[in-house]
Amino acid sequence: MGNSSGCPVVLNTNVWASGDGKKEHQFNLWFDPSADYHTYTIIWNDKNVIFKVDDLFIRSFKRYADLPYPGGKPMEVHATLWDGSWWATQKGKVPVDWSRAPFVVSYRGYAADACVPNGEGRPLSCPAGTDRWMNRQLSGAEWGTVKWAKENYMSYNYCEDGWRFPQGFPPECARN
């Protein structure tokens, strides 16, 4: 998300389940993402949604049988460009400088590895190598990097936003 010179760039992560998002975690990146390419990975399976930056695990959203989880429907990838000045840049304190347009983003090495539904009641069609992510969960050491990212670089956690959730936090907050 937007920043001003000398301020960290913020990575926003969100999980949508049953048509509802509001599960954001934001992280101040510990590097300048414009200086070189970096790898951003999302591993989504029936057990959890895991977010990685380069080789570091930064977030895991676990599945619980009694809580909404993004399962049972195909995954969709969306990319959008929009003026989120108020939301993304310190509540509008740093507006977009449109005189510096065009703004250019480039990707390299994009890859999607997925199991595809074959129709109602039929098994998924999964490519070779699927097992490396289909049952993936974090190890103890990987949970350590999630804790490191949270303690050192998390700038927003929906589970701590009492203004947004005055009636109480979502139930997964006590568990994730």
From TrEMBL:
<dbReference type="GO" id="GO:0044042">
    <property type="term" value="P:glucan metabolic process"/>
</dbReference>
<keyword id="KW-0378">Hydrolase</keyword>
<dbReference type="Pfam" id="PF00722">
    <property type="entry name" value="Glyco_hydro_16"/>
</dbReference>
<keyword id="KW-0808">Transferase</keyword>
<dbReference type="InterPro" id="IPR044791">
    <property type="entry name" value="Beta-glucanase/XTH"/>
</dbReference>
<keyword id="KW-0326">Glycosidase</keyword>
<dbReference type="GO" id="GO:0004553">
    <property type="term" value="F:hydrolase activity, hydrolyzing O-glycosyl compounds"/>
</dbReference>
<feature type="domain" description="GH16">
    <location>
        <begin position="1"/>
        <end position="107"/>
    </location>
</feature>
<dbReference type="Pfam" id="PF06955">
    <property type="entry name" value="XET_C"/>
</dbReference>
<dbReference type="InterPro" id="IPR010713">
    <property type="entry name" value="XET_C"/>
</dbReference>
<dbReference type="GO" id="GO:0048046">
    <property type="term" value="C:apoplast"/>
</dbReference>
<dbReference type="GO" id="GO:0016762">
    <property type="term" value="F:xyloglucan:xyloglucosyl transferase activity"/>
</dbReference>
<dbReference type="InterPro" id="IPR000757">
    <property type="entry name" value="Beta-glucanase-like"/>
</dbReference>
<dbReference type="InterPro" id="IPR013320">
    <property type="entry name" value="ConA-like_dom_sf"/>
</dbReference>
<protein>
    <recommendedName>
        <fullName>xyloglucan:xyloglucosyl transferase</fullName>
        <ecNumber>2.4.1.207</ecNumber>
    </recommendedName>
</protein>
